[in-house]
Amino acid sequence: MARGKGKMSREEAGRLGGQATSKNHGKEFYQEIGQKGGEATSRNHDKEFYQEIGQKGGEATSEKYDKEFYREIGRKGGEARNNNNE
């Protein structure tokens, strides 16, 4: 336990709770709560919200990866597209 006197940290309690939940629920449970969360988010946010988070995500990705990364994913995308058209 992270803290003295038998108390655990909030982080440790969350981790242990997450582990217990994952043992009690299957893939469908997580799909359902993800679906509900996505629907709630879409009701509470407008088009500009999604544009802004997409912009930020794209900028973060471009800072993290180099040209070779984009070449590789472009090549894989082209191959997948060609395979689907056959």
Automatic annotation (TrEMBL):
Q: Where is this region: Disordered?
A: 1-65
- Entry protein name: General stress protein YciG
This chain's source organism reads Fontibacillus phaseoli
| The organism's taxonomic lineage, starting at the top | Bacteria, Bacillati, Bacillota, Bacilli, Bacillales
